[in-house]
Amino acid sequence: MRIFDPHIHMTSRTTDDYRAMYDAGVRAVTEPAFWLGQPRTSVDSFLDYFDGLLGWERFRASRFGIAHHATIGLNPKEANDPRCIGVLEKLPRYLAKDGVVAVGETGFDSMTPEEEFAFVRQLELAGEHELPAMVHTPHRDKEAGTRRTLEIVAQSGLDAADVVVDHLNERTVDMVLDSGSWAAFSIYPDTKMSPDRMVTILQRVGLERVMVNSAADWGHSDPLTTLYTGRAMLAAGFTEDDVDRVLWRNPVEFYGRSGRLVLPDENASAPAADFAGNSLARGEAID
Amino acid sequence: MTQPNAGLDTGLDTQRLAQQQERVRTDPGALPVLFAAAARTLGRGPASDHDAAGDPDDLLHPRLEDLGRRELLLAWRPVAGAPAAAVEVLADLYHHGDADERRAVLRALRDLDLDSVPAAALDMVRDALRANDTRLVAAAVGPYASEHLPDGEWRHAVLKCLFTGVPLAAVDGLERRRDDELVRMAAALAAEREAAGREVTADTRRLIGADAGAPADTAATDTKD
C-alpha cells in the first residue's frame, strides 16, 4: 500500500513516527501551516515557522524516505489576532516557493469577520499564484460553517476543483462534493472521523474527489490512520486499486494541480537501512 | 569541490534562461521571483552523470536548479551596483530562501565580486554552518569560506563536516588551509569515537594522516551535530 498523507503536521511528530510511517507505506506528505497550540505573538514567529516547514522539515522527511510538501497560510484561529494579521502581506513571497503546493490552512474557526477577511484574501492569493487552496472547517457549528465556506469559495472565482474542504463528516460531505470541491476527512483515534465510518461514507459517495488524512499533530492523534483506513477499505471489499486511488492517486491529482509536486521516482530503490540512499531529491515535477 | 560549469549543455531550458537573464539585466527587481521559481522554470535534477549512489544529496555536484540560479545571479550581478548593494540583495535572497535557494546563493558567492564585503557575505556562510541540513553545510564550505573565513571558524566548519557526514571532498582549500590545530581537533574526534566503539570515518583518518591511502567518504549518513 502506498500512501500520500495530504494533511499531517510533522513538525509536531518524532523521528519514530517518520520511521513508522515509512514502514506503513507513506512516501509523501503535505504539511499545512497551522496553529501551534500556543498563540503566536508576532509576524516574525510565522516566518520562522514557514522557513522551518520549507527547510528543515523537508530535509528531515527526506532522511526517512518521505517527500515533504507544505501549504502556507494564516490559520483561522490566529486570523483573529491583530498581532498576526500582518503575515498576509508576507505570504506572496512564500507562495512562490517550490515546496508550496497550496494556500492554507485557511477558512473558519469561530466564524468571525476577521476570519472571513483572511479567508477571502487567501483565496485571492491562491488565484494570483495559481495554487490550490486547503480549507479548514470549524469544529463547532460545522454544518453552518461549511455552508458559508462554500459560498465564499463560489464567490472567489476559483475553480471549485482547486479547493479541498477538510475535516468533513457525514453531515457535511454531500454539500462539498456537490459544489465540485474536494472532500477531505481527518481520521482521528476517537473524535473527528474513524476508519469504519470513513468506509461507510466511501461506500455511499464513491471515491472521486475524496481524500483521507491523519491530520496528526501535537494532540491525541495517530500518523498511521491513513493505513488503518486502507485496511478497513480492503476488509469491506474495496479493491487494492480503490485504496491506491484514495490514499495515493487522489492527493497526487489534487496537489499536482499546483505543478509543484515532486514525488519519489517509482523505479528508485527504497531507502537503505540508514535512509541515506534515497533518491527523493531527484524526483521530477508533476505538472 | 566541483565547480559548476556554464551549465548550458546540461539540460537547462536555455531559451527560457536567456529570457530570464535579459529580464534581470533590465529589471533587477525581478530577480527574487525568478530565483525562487528557477527549478520549475529552468530545470530540476542531477546535472551530471556522476555516480548518484555515491553522492545521493548532491553535496559534491551541482544540480540543474543550482546551475540555473547561478546563471541568473551571474547575469544580474553587473547591474546590481557596488558589492555592498549586491550583498544586501543576496542576503535577502538567502534569508528568504528555502534550502535550495540558500544553497545556490552560497555556491555562487565566490564569483559575484564580493571580496570587498566579506563580513556581510560571511554572515550567510555562518548561518549555513549553524544548520544541520547537510546540503547547506556542504555549500557553505566552498571557495568563499576557504578564502575569507577566519581560521578558528574554518576549522570548526571542517569538523562539522566530519560530524555530519559531509564528505571532505566538499571542502574547498582543505590542503592549503589544513594546519596542526585542525589535525589535533580531528584526532581528538577520532579518539572520542574509538573510545565509544564507534566508527572513525575514512575522511577523518585521512585528515589526521592515519590512513593516507583510504578512499574518501562519499555519502552523508548523519544529520546530528
- Tally the beta strands of chain B: 0
Share of helix of chain A, binned: 40-55%
CATH topology of chain A: TIM Barrel
How many helices of chain B? The count is 12
Given helix and strand content, the structural type of chain A is: alpha/beta
How many beta-strand elements of chain A? 10
The mean pLDDT of chain A is 92
Largest sheet features of chain B: none
The order of strands across the largest sheet of chain A is 1-2-3-4-5-6-7-8
Structural class of chain B: mainly alpha
Low-confidence stretches of chain A: 267-287
Overall body shape of chain B: globular
> SSE string of chain A, helix = H, strand = E?
EHEHHEHEHEHEHEHEHHEE
CATH architecture of chain A: Alpha-Beta Barrel
Distance between the termini of chain A: 24 Å
Oligomer: heterodimer
> What ranges of chain B have pLDDT less than 50 throughout 5 or more consecutive residues?
1-8
Strand content of chain B: under 5%
**Integer tally of domains of chain A:** 1
- Helix fraction of chain B, binned, reads 55-70%
Described by strand count, sense and barrel closure, the largest sheet of chain A is: 8 strands, parallel
Describe it for me?
The complex is a heterodimer of chains A (287) and B (225). By secondary structure, chain A is an alpha/beta fold. Chain A has one domain: Alpha-Beta Barrel (TIM Barrel). In chain A, 40% of the residues lie in helices and 15% in strands. Chain A has ten helices and ten strands. Chain A has an eight-stranded parallel sheet, sandwiched between helices. In chain A, helix 8 crosses helix 9. The longest helix of chain A has 17 residues, at 240-256. Chain A is globular and about 50 Å long. Chain B has 225 residues and is mostly helical. Chain B has one domain (14-207). Chain B is built from twelve helices and no strands. In chain B, helix 4 packs antiparallel against helix 5 (99-108) and helix 6 packs antiparallel against helix 7. Chain B is globular. Residues 1-8 of chain B have low confidence and may be disordered. The chains are: A alpha/beta (287), B mainly alpha (225).
